[in-house]
UniProtKB/TrEMBL annotation:
Organism this protein belongs to: Spirosoma terrae
Annotated ranges, domain Putative auto-transporter adhesin head GIN: 38-218
Name under which the protein is recorded: DUF2807 domain-containing protein
InterPro entries reported in the protein's UniProt record: DUF2807
Top-level taxonomic group: Bacteria
Length: 233
């Protein structure tokens, strides 16, 4: 029996190794893209994205030559899209995209994108949608931030604002202790977690073993079910 078990394990390991794609040698290249007139971003496929403000548009990609050659960037109706032509290829080196843009209104990151957005200090509204284990670090000031986080995604915020509206599901996280706001309206489900600092008013609907931890002394409107908790720290 032990010999059979060992043989089965060996076969499975061999098959898994055979399924892994050979990344091949790494040859770094940098490529610039002449695209402009966009204020929204939609990106996927594990890209590493850095976004900063500037008077002019600038886009640069850095990574392995084969991956950069496979990268497609287009602008449609004010949205900059970035993905790979060969979407079936899963094993890649990290590809880094550096973006400078005058203003940012919305982002939609999916498929394990890791993004950093810094330096936008005087914005009225920003919409953030993350899915598929994507992560975004935001540093700046916005009057209103609306976010939808799903599929074990994480949004970390630093700065300050007036209002946060956020919907979380599927074990997602919102880290906003370092982003004090006047108001927050949260819908949290599926074992998701929120850490937030609120001054005036906090509305929470929490279900499915979710956790909301808050700092400050706001007026509270709490609707909790299914082993969820809302705790002041």
């Amino acid at each position: 029996m032990k010999r059979i078990s060992f043989f089965v394990i060996l076969c499975v390991a061999t098959l898994l190794n055979a399924c892994k794609e050979d990344l091949g040698p790494y040859k770094e290249v940098t490529r610039a893209y002449s695209l402009d007139t966009f204020s929204k971003l939609t990106m996927e496929s594990g890209l590493r994205v850095d976004v900063q403000p500037g008077n002019n548009f600038s886009i640069t990609a850095r990574g392995n030559e084969e991956d950069v050659n496979d990268l497609v960037l287009t602008v449609r109706q004010g949205v900059l899209y970035a993905n790979y032509k060969n979407s079936r290829r899963r094993n890649r080196y990290d590809t880094f995209i550096m973006i400078t843009m005058p203003a940012i209104r919305a982002v939609n990151f999916s498929g394990a994108v890791h993004a950093t957005i810094t330096g936008f200090l005087t914005m009225n509204e920003l919409d953030i949608e993350l899915s598929g284990a994507s992560k975004t670090d935001y540093k700046g000031n916005v009057n209103l931030v609306k976010s939808v986080l799903s599929g074990a995604s994480t949004l970390t915020m630093t700065g300050e604002g007036k209002k946060l509206v956020s919907e979380l599901s599927g074990a997602s996280q919102l880290e906003a202790y370092d982003y004090p706001a006047d108001e927050a309206d949260l819908d949290v489900s599926g074992a998701s977690e929120v850490r937030i600092r609120i001054n005036d008013m906090l509305k929470v609907k929490a279900s499915g073993a979710s956790k909301v931890r808050y700092r400050g002394n706001p007026q509270k409107y709490i609707d909790v079910s299914g082993a969820s908790i809302v705790v002041q720290e």
